[in-house]
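Posting for a labmate who doesn't have an account.
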Amino acid sequence: VQLQASGGGLVQPGGSLRLSCAATGSIFSFNGVEWYRQAPGNQRTLVASITSEGTTNYANSVKGRFTISRDNAKNTAYLQMNRPIPEDTAVYYCKANVSPYYGPGSKVRRLDYWGQGTQVTVSS
């Protein structure tokens, strides 16, 4: 299983950007997904999360501006960033809990995978 984060780039304040987090490989189930971000000199912090049932949670700093969603058929989660501000500038990482498929009758395991990070820069 591999996790690929994509969609980052330069966006103007007040614009919009959508990040994607796609799991590929032999997958039994695509479970909870979390988006984190890390700005230079800062710790990595949780931005948003979504459970396999679709329950979402957000950091106060992004509530009302960012939306996390998922497409289970594509084993992909998204982070829609609306009205970004310069303080949102960071490398964004996704973490997904995935149950790989090992074959018929195999034991189901739940493992955490990290994407490689995608840079988001909010600037005019």
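Reply:
Got it, the structure tokens are right above this. The mean pLDDT is 96.
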